[in-house]
Amino acid sequence: MKKIVTLVLIAASLFIVNPIYATATYKRWQTINVPNVCTFQIPPTMEIQAGSYKAMMDSLNTDFGWGKNEMVAQQKGLNNMEKKAQALYARVIVNANPIDSDSNSLRLGDTLQFSKSDLMEIERILKDVLVEGFRLQKQKTGETIRLVNWRGTKVVSINNIDCVLTTYTRQLENNPIVVVYAYAFFNNTVTNNVTISYREKDKSIWETDLNQKIIKTFNFVKH
To answer: What confidence category does residue 61 fall into, taking pLDDT thresholds of 50, 70 and 90?
Structure first.
């Protein structure tokens, strides 16, 4: 039960990072530092959300339990509203969600052992919270977000670190369908969430760099 409660808190998603596992590094990629959270890299096709565009997005976003966004990477050129960038969609969102901790808390690097029934309950809760978040977003912006396909929740290993991965597709109004990969790393007093998303039709552009390479560059501050 404690494991389920801990996982529910995922949904309720200048320090020196001490390496505790081998991360990937890529030449000509930019290294991003999120203070007291992590470092990671982004390819030349992406940029960190900043300036007036960030201010606009912050005003529209609804925090429905995934935690405050610490850093957002997006397709390059969007900060300047370049036409080419506006024709694409790609995001890497990083946040750290504080949780209550004790001697039994899951720590970065712990082996995650959840029963089938645990994972089914986790999936049910996360899905309900996600749909409720879409409802709240519509109340705030007037735009409808639809859950197209729930692909499930499972334990995966990234750089030999166990985490929980939830995958689904969603659609904003009549825009192209977006595929979402939401990773949750348990780190004692926080859950480190990394959410990677891009349009399904642009899979050939983003899949390798975002969901195969970027996720392996993350190096979290150990709590």
So the answer is: low
150: which 2 tokens? 């729930």
Helix/strand/coil for 220:
strand
Q: Which residue has the tokens 């390479």?
A: 213
Among 216, 211, 141, CA closest to 180: 211
Distance between CA 31 and CA 33 in Å, rounded? Answer: 7
Using CA atoms, how far apart are residues 19 and 37, in angstroms rounded to an integer? 13
Tokens of 33: 């530092």
Vertex 168 angle, CA 57 and 125, to 5°:
90
Contact (Cβ atoms closer than 8 angstroms) between residue 102 and residue 122: no
- Asked whether the beta carbons of 29 and 44 are under 8 A apart, the reply is yes
Tokens representing 95 are 């946040």
Structural domain boundaries in the chain: 2-220
Predicted TM-score (pTM) of the model is 0.85
pLDDT at 16: 30
Q: Are 162 and 110 in contact (CB under 8 A)?
A: yes
Q: Which residues contact 90 (CB under 8 A, 6 or more apart)?
A: 46, 74, 75, 197, 198, 199, 202, 205, 206, 210
DSSP-H helix ranges across 61-194:
83-86, 116-141
DSSP letter string over 3-54? HHHHHHHHH---------SPPP--TTPEEEEETTTEEEEE-TTEEE--HHHH
Q: CA–CA separation, 143 vs 146, rounded Å? A: 10
208 DSSP 8-state letter: I
The pLDDT of residue 56: 72
- Which CATH architecture does the domain made up of 2-220 adopt? 3-Layer(aba) Sandwich (3.40)
